[in-house]
Amino acid sequence: MLQVKGLTVSFKGATALASVNLKVELGEVVAIIGSNGAGKTTTLNAISRVVPATGEITFEGRSLLRCSQRDVVQAGVVHVPEGRRVFANLSVRENLLMGGITRPRAEWSESLDRMIEIFPVLGTHADRLAGSLSGGEQQMLALGRALMARPKVLMLDEPSLGLSPLMVQTVAKLVRDLRGPRMAILLVEQNASLALALADRAYVLERGRVVVEGRSERLREDGAVRSAYLGIPAAKEAV
Known about the structure:
Blueprint (H helix, E strand, L loop, with lengths): L1 E10 L2 E11 L4 E6 L5 H8 L6 E6 L2 E2 L5 H7 L1 E4 L11 H8 L8 H11 L1 H5 L10 H13 L5 E5 L7 H14 L5 E5 L3 H7 L2 E6 L2 E7 H6 L1 H7 L10
Helix pairs in contact: 3-6
């Protein structure tokens, strides 16, 4: 289990996260939703040690708070950042192999074959420069690169951002297909409807604080959540 307690992040005296608590169990998809600037991306960046934080971050009983980014990946927590961030001047194959750099070299060939099985388009374009791929193809590559590290917790930051409606559905299907008893998915997604459709549980962040949490089906019926994040007006009370 990945568990976060009292996670706090400040930038130049301004509080970005204020004592955030959350947990993610293996086998489940957990979403973080909220408006722009609520602290969603900062939460993932703090867990993956991109930004300094205070509080507690533990995975399988091990503290990650003072680990390096590489140590966090080696522990099994892998982050796919917003904007994909592929290595544009490397080939698709080279990008995938970069994802496996923390794993034993003996695993690379098998993992590479597995990624091409999951993402056939990456096999088709294996020798192309990553920068020449479409946005959707780059998202597939970013996911494949992360999976090369054989994560136990896969953190996805805005995987649908900038994609066509058809490609958004493709990414959603991949998230559904990836879920399983040996891996957890922590999903940050501006599209709250999509996030709640994919997740078992969700946390709602506002101004760096968790204001609502619970099962996704319950949050979809919560009037405040429906109005603020799903674009559905709250039902009027009968007079």
